[in-house]
């Protein structure tokens, strides 16, 4: 990596963009600086007239997080503009994260002052490229052929957003071509979670021979494909959810994103999620969905049965595509799992956890309160684990499948037989730690944070002296074989059972845990350590940050208190025009006949400055229904549209 070129390119880009980030985020409410897409390859200040606008606050060095706030019209044009805004505002960070990720994924990366990025993909990388390009063609073909389907219309908007993301990043870096991503670069970055399984699927020598590994190398390979700890607790006082992302430390450049999708200015979907530059989904994953009153998160499971990779095909929807679509359309957790199960790619194989807050009261939990969807190539198993929460007051997740069939098919029994019972669902270190400490976490938000942020490997008997055997792993602290891998954040949220005022607020802390451990510092890493970490803070020693949505005036929702013994409680306020408790956010959608839904589609090019396919190699013609915008919760047979 030619760092002198990188420094020059970064300095040239940052100067004209500082106005985007000129006001700090304050929990008591601070105006944001809004920008909108001008339709001609650039941004203009203000919200404009299109209904799509955004603000970005670059607080990575101050807080460990950048903050993206966006409102967008749920149309193809609105989705494209939303992508363009994000790509333009975060263009430098997209480049920084992509190069750091690419080096970890494929090896050496070089940047040329007068040209583009070059990387050592070799034959293996070429097969990956072919897979993602084949997938992109298939997805766009399905959007075109299924234009009457609300499901595929939602996919189409996501792909338009991806087109805009690339166009915005390229527009912001037009004078520094060394920092421009190409079409395939962006597709690779979007599919970085799916890449865990794409590589062994397309190249057999990338499949790990688990039986040939000793314990140390086994854990090293295991960490490459699994990540995260998650916990859900229930008491009469609060439902709490927490998630900590495990990954390589090259991935610690973070942006927390809040997006409101609207139809004619009226919100129909709000989502906030921890993320990274250049992603249209979380990848961690952790989402709060306040209009649906849902929380969605995941932990990744390993695939020890290599024969499953033979089922992976590009003719499917990858996780980066299925998750935003499921988030947008879902009515509740069971419905989310049903939507997610469609068109399973068999890539990024996780246990997904969907919490439906409206199914919790102070005295009981309704079925469907907590739904999990566990994916392997060829299958997604959906289970209602609400009975588990009723019985023990919590449900935890830690990279081991819950369902016996998925556990067996993924090859876990043979792994446990060889490596020992402490790697099983019931007896692994985190299972025991959660079993011991989760009852305490039910008592208060302070206790919940303490449990979710814990790593006391020197004294905890369940950690066996290994800092990777904790809720928040710190592989860099291993006295035997340190590696730059571990838990890199912590996000928590809570809601009052039966309450109506949950606005999707979460509290997030960036970086490896500092509970009982020293802050992680890149300054302490030997110079020879080949891990790029462009754009990251030198030292991660940050506090929890409240991640609130902003209202139409760009003011943060007021917060009652911070850090009290019962945790942070959001004000149960009711803004004028906000839905009543019994109102479903989809009720103003009216059904039309199947014949009308199947009416001929008008082929319309994006009139947003990217309609020439040769400009960047993107498909620029998109099919869309004339004067109709869809947003529907149900199956494809249940079609709803707004009155035009």
From TrEMBL:
<comment type="similarity">
    <text>Belongs to the phospholipase B-like family.</text>
</comment>
<dbReference type="GO" id="GO:0004620">
    <property type="term" value="F:phospholipase activity"/>
</dbReference>
<comment type="function">
    <text>Putative phospholipase.</text>
</comment>
<keyword id="KW-0325">Glycoprotein</keyword>
<keyword id="KW-0378">Hydrolase</keyword>
<protein>
    <recommendedName>
        <fullName>Phospholipase B-like</fullName>
        <ecNumber>3.1.1.-</ecNumber>
    </recommendedName>
</protein>
<dbReference type="InterPro" id="IPR007000">
    <property type="entry name" value="PLipase_B-like"/>
</dbReference>
<dbReference type="GO" id="GO:0009395">
    <property type="term" value="P:phospholipid catabolic process"/>
</dbReference>
<keyword id="KW-0442">Lipid degradation</keyword>
<dbReference type="Pfam" id="PF04916">
    <property type="entry name" value="Phospholip_B"/>
</dbReference>
<keyword id="KW-0443">Lipid metabolism</keyword>
<keyword id="KW-0732">Signal</keyword>
<dbReference type="GO" id="GO:0005576">
    <property type="term" value="C:extracellular region"/>
</dbReference>
